[in-house]
User: Which sequence fits this backbone?
């Protein structure tokens, strides 16, 4: 009985396949369309707020980075100007020292060769007492600290 029923259903299925095949294809296409629409709605509902928050956070980070870049550029310009004015002042002071050295004769009446290179020579006075070890250590410690 079972064989007869299966055989009969096969014959009926083969005979009706020209009618059922287009219906099955339409049904399959409709189900696929509904699933795609539902998935699109669900993704939009969940992803759009997340993406909007991410874009906002990124925009804030970019604006902070722009502000840091501007601040760095400003401090770099300020540092360059300060160093430039410092170099100008050092050059001016060096010229003044060289001009003063031309008017001051050396103690022995001779002209020192180092004087022309811009270095001041301080002659050691024999009357000066040298530092003892305790004073030398305290001077070294002050130099390290300051």
Assistant:
């Amino acid at each position: 009985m079972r064989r007869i029923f299966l055989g009969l259903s096969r014959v009926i299925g083969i005979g009706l396949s020209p009618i059922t095949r287009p219906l099955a294809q339409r049904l399959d296409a409709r189900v696929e369309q509904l699933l795609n629409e539902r998935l699109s709605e669900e993704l939009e509902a969940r992803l759009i707020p997340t993406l909007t928050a991410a874009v906002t956070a990124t925009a804030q980070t970019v604006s902070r980075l722009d502000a840091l870049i501007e601040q760095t550029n400003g401090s770099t310009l300020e540092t360059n100007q300060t160093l430039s004015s410092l170099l100008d002042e050092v050059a001016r002071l060096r010229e003044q020292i060289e001009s003063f050295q031309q008017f001051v004769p050396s103690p022995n009446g001779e002209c020192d060769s180092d004087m022309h290179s811009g270095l001041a020579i301080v002659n050691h006075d024999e009357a000066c007492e040298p530092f003892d070890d305790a004073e030398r250590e305290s001077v070294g410690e002050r130099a390290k600290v300051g």
